Amino acid sequence: MSVNLQKGQRVDLTKGNNGLSKILVGLGWDASAPASGRGLFAKKAANIDCDASVLMINNLGKLNNIENVIYFGHLKSSCGSVTHTGDNMTGDGDGDDEQILVDLLKIPADIDKLIFVVNIYDCVNRHQDFGMINNAFIRVVNTSGNQELLKYNLSENYAGKTSLIIGEIYRNNSEWKFSATGEGTNDASLKAIIGRYTK
Predict the structure, then answer these.
(1) What is the mean pLDDT of residues 162-174?
(2) Is 183 exposed, middle or buried (0-12, 13-18, 19+ CB in 10 A)?
(3) C-alpha distances out from residue 56 to 32, 76, 87, 197, Å
(4) Which residues make beta-bridge pairs with 100?
(5) Which residues sit opposite 138 in a β-bridge?
(6) What is the mean pLDDT of residues 92-118?
(7) DSSP assignment of 67-88, as one string?
(8) pTM of the prediction?
(9) Distance between CA 72 and CA 13 in Å, rounded?
(10) Residue whose C-alpha is closest to residue 29's, from 152, 126, 187
């Protein structure tokens, strides 16, 4: 049975899920429909290109190699533990908009945390922020049997924020846990987010 999380909650992934190794992390969002206009005159929701990425953080809390950033321009980690399935440029439709596959057993011993972030592509020039996004979520699925383990719906108002640190999968001794982070930031690009972990 899937667990619905609130911001700040943590849950065990591997403890109690014997043999859990391969998981799918699904992220989704919808562009808000403008409030004005009806029928033929209704305005369409803005085309907002959100991008999901993963930062593989070492046991010192740092990103020590740019190769450990997995995103639409670098789809697979060199160790093979994290694979991004590709870019969705509109967020249209139900369900996951972007998916990331993780093999927990292949994560190198010096990597303690996977940070899942979503940013709005070219947000400054397009004058877009997460106040224009609804129904953002992250979920974790056990790929063996396609069983959803948890889901975190981001229900806060993120108006003015251009990036979201959505959640983390982190090592706790020999187990893996998930933390519902839900932190909005004013980072205008993935490069700016990366800078948080390389200083």
Answers:
(1) 95
(2) middle
(3) 31, 12, 19, 10
(4) 25, 84
(5) 27, 152
(6) 92
(7) GGEEBTTB-B-TTSSEEE----
(8) 0.90
(9) 26
(10) 152
**Kind and range of the H or E element at 193?**
helix 190-195
Q: Which two tokens stand for residue 57?
A: 């953080």
Q: What is the DSSP letter of 187?
A: -
The CATH number for 3-33+45-195, chosen from 3.40.50.1360, 3.40.50.300, 2.60.60.30, 3.40.50.620, is 2.60.60.30
- Looking at this protein, which amino acid is placed at residue 92? D
* Strand-by-strand arrangement of the 3-5 sheet: 3-5, 147-153, 133-142, 22-31, 98-103, 82-84
CA distance 43 to 37: 6
Q: Which residue has the tokens 């292949």?
A: 106
Interatomic CA distance for residues 75 and 82, integer angstroms:
8
Instruction: List the end-to-end C-alpha distance of the chain, in Å, as a whole number.
Output: 40
